[in-house]
Amino acid sequence: MNVVNHAQLTSECELPITDHAGLRSALADANVPTLLMVYTTYSQDRAYLDSFAPYLTGLYTAEMPSTVPEEMAQDLRDRLFALLTDPVPPKERPIDPELLRHMMSVSVGEEVAAGIVPVLYDQMGFERVVPRKDLPGRKAPPADFRVLVIGGGMTGIAAGIKLAEAGYDYTIIEKNASLAGTWYENTYPGVGVDTPSHFYSYSFELNPDWSHYHPKGKEIYDYLTGVANKYGVPPHVQFETMVTSATWDEGKARWIVGLRGKDGKERFEEANAVILAHGVLNRWTMPQIPGLDTFKGPKMHTAGWDNSVDLKGKRVAVIGTGASAAQLAPAIADEVAELTIFQRSKHWVLNNPDINVGVNDAIRFALKNIPHYKEWFRFRVYWFTGDGLYGNVCADDGWEDMENSISAQNKAARDYAIYYIQNKLADRPDLVEKIVPDYPIFGKRIVLDADGGWLDTLVKPNVTLETGAIDHVEENAIVMADGTRYEVDVIALATGFELAPALGPLKVYGRGGADLAKAWGKDDARSYLGVMAPQYPNFFLTLGPNSAPNHAAGVNMVLEAQIHYIIEALDMLVAADAHAIEPSMAAYEEWNRRVEEQMKNMVWSHPKAKSYYLNSKGRNYVSCPFRLADYWSWTRQPDRTALQLT
Ligand code: NAP
After folding, report:
1. According to the model, what pLDDT value does residue 527 have?
2. Which strands, in side-by-side order, build the sheet including 146-150?
3. Could you tell which of 191, 221, 438, 445 is best to mutate to test the pocket of ligand 1, judged by most ligand atoms within 8 Å of the CB?
4. Of 28, 105, 302, the residue nearest 189 (C-alpha)
5. Ligand 1 surroundings by CB, under 6 angstroms
6. Are the CB atoms for 36 and 88 separated by under 8 Å?
7. Contact 603, 393 (CB under 8 A)
8. DSSP 497
């Protein structure tokens, strides 16, 4: 177990702040509720905190106008200025957990449960953990204990960092020539993140320097590779190498892992444990559209974009209207001659006015220099893009309007989306008709419109939204079922990823030759906690079945929670002098029963909702039906009674 000081928040910022002009402008621009949290961290003045409560609402960004009366905000800024520039810096005192919980509630304008307090410490960057290998009394892993990580994306990098901190020898096998996975591969115009990076980033490496609240792909790539370099990950990586198979050798209690490098030859390495971090949204192929192969012009999938293709003045087709298309189309609409967007089914669209907003210098000063500002800001972002959205996807007891929505929060989000779309497209009722879905909002991944850019694109004179069925593709055209022909020069396929089969082409053979690909079938993957499966000792999944946070942002939080759990399990193995750890069949069945029970209440199970979360039998094998905070707490400490050690 990590040792943390839960009573004391920590910050590496130095006091006093001597750049008074910089501090003044930072205080003037900074997010008022976040400043209030910083102040209260020092003052612990509950009455002062409560005086702000009536004015604090659910808005989260630094850019949004404050709802706090100006004289109160100014008083807070003055107090903070005095505190942060005092030549005798204020001492931080341990904070009572109940005061912390109350601070969180005031900060976000709604009641936050006590269970979130430990999440705040760990995930918001407040925690300064003692590296595992320095923990007194902990049994160090044997020197020859080796962990092999498949994939060097956001998860694999974090796994490497945390394994090293725990004293485990590790190797990452990465198919590309670089780390960072998705953020290396996806280079299509407009690629970025539609969840805010002040949360979508590692809790142990908060970045005060994001240029935008939703940075573009290259900046995330630089962040991830920068973190990997800082922690010395690259020397542990075998690049341009694919894992072909993993076979458990009972006698050796090791995995024999098949690898294929650039030379195409297969070779084998051994490892005591394997962590599968190959990414859920990673494998793609060209869709099965008749005649697509005969198309003479360039055709590119968003995840395999060729930036040497000049789109200027071309007639371009974008197939698909999901998150990738909604980034791509606005980025290219103005340079192409004609843009035809092919929608197969409807996606709910919610506007996010912040997506293109830059983080100004004053706010960056605050994030960098004001103690606890970046941590408290991260908490707000987590809340408003993470668990605060859970009510959208989980049905209210006795909710009556089940045809269109599943809960009060879900209905409010639906109304808000309809209001946005109708207002934005007031002159285009034909488009409103074409894009507003009939299933409840959040029934599948919503499209976050970057400050209206997606809908603005749809109304451009050179843009057409085609909602009919594609019949086939010819050498220079896409032909619809009704015979309409679109002559195009380039086809962009924003058609998404193959989640099934969950292992991809990888073969995994566990105890007695148990075949994981066979057990999971075409699209029926199951696991224990999304992390392990019986009969596959020391084989760990990340973002495995039913652990994707589909209600919100938070993939970063889930992957960190899973890595924490995996290392806890490995430590349990080492401490017991055992060779193999796996979940019991009973624990596996109980977890899946709980998932299925809860899934019945979730929006993804609504009869009108169809998404890539569902397998061919209609079972959701992707989404986690629980709150991020609950999942986080269940993965803190492995339940010894659920695990078998041999
Ligand atoms: P997606 O959400 O799976 O959307 C694919 C789109 O292509 C859908 O509109 C789909 O229609 C359509 N489509 C698929 N096959 C087709 C075919 N054969 N003919 C016509 N249309 C077809 O894929 P994505 O947009 O690449 O996004 C995938 C996931 O990546 C997202 O859900 C999100 O989690 C992640 N992502 C995140 C960001 C971010 O900013 N954070 C950005 C991009 C992607 P149907 O709806 O009918 O299936």
Report:
1. 98
2. 237-238, 169-173, 146-150, 273-276, 539-541
3. 445
4. 302
5. 192-195, 281, 287, 289, 302, 319-325, 327, 342, 344-345, 445, 470, 494-497, 612
6. no
7. yes
8. -
With 0-12 CB in 10 A as exposed, 13-18 as middle and 19+ as buried, what is 519?
Answer: middle
How many CB atoms neighbour CB 591 within 10 A?
22
DSSP, res 375: H
- For residue 320, how far is its CA from the centre of ligand 1 (angstroms)? 6
What stretches of 166-302 show up as alpha helix (H) in DSSP? 182-185, 217-230
Work out which ligand 1 atom sits closest to the CA atom of 214: 40
Q: Ligand 1 centroid to 137 CA: how many Å?
A: 49
> For residue 332, what are the CA distances in angstroms to 43, 327, 341?
51, 9, 12
Q: If we measure between CA atoms, which residue out of 81, 539, 476, 82 comes closest to residue 298? A: 476
Which residues does 10 contact at the CB level (< 8 Å), separation at least 6? 126, 127, 128
Note the pTM of the prediction, 2 decimals.
Answer: 0.96
Radius of gyration over alpha carbons of the chain, in Å? 25
Among residues 159, 170, 156, 164, which one has the least CA distance to residue 132?
164
The answer to whether 23 and 85 have CB atoms below 8 angstroms apart is yes
Strands in 507-509's sheet, in edge-to-edge order, are 266-271, 254-260, 242-249, 507-509
Angle at Cα 217 formed by Cα 211 and Cα 218, nearest 5°?
75
Q: Give the confidence band of 489 by pLDDT, cuts at 50, 70, 90.
A: very high
- The distance of Cα 287 from the centroid of its chain, to the nearest Å, equals 25
The rounded Cα 117 to chain-centroid distance in angstroms is: 21
Check the CA dihedral 300-305-308-311 and report its sign. Answer: positive
90 prior amide bond cis, ω within 30: no
Q: How far is CA 462 from the centre of its chain?
A: 34
Q: Domains in the chain, ordered, with CATH?
A: 20-128+360-388 (no CATH), 142-282+499-645 (3.50.50.60), 292-348+413-493 (3.50.50.60)
CA distances (Å), origin 439, targets 7, 146, 610:
46, 48, 9
C-alpha 255 to ligand 1 mean position (Å): 35
Q: What tokens does 505 get?
A: 């082409």
Cis ω before 353 (30° cut-off from 0):
no
452-476 tens-digit pLDDT:
999 999 999 999 999 999 999 999 9
Q: How far is the CA of 324 from the centre of ligand 1 (A)?
A: 6
- CA 253, CA 190: separation in Å to the nearest integer? 47
Distance 391 CA to ligand 1 centre (A): 24
Instruction: Give first-to-last CA distance, the chain, whole Å.
Output: 21
154-165 vs 555-575: helix axis angle to the nearest 10?
Answer: 30
Q: List pLDDT tens digits, range 343-379.
A: 999 999 999 988 899 999 999 999 999 999 999 999 9
Instruction: Give the pair of three-digit tokens for residue 206.
Output: 């908060």
Nearest CA to ligand 1 atom 23: 496
Q: For ligand 1, atom 16, which residue shows the shortest CA distance? A: 495
Q: How far is the CA of 445 from the centre of ligand 1 (A)?
A: 8
Give me ligand 1 centre to Cα 323, in Å: 6
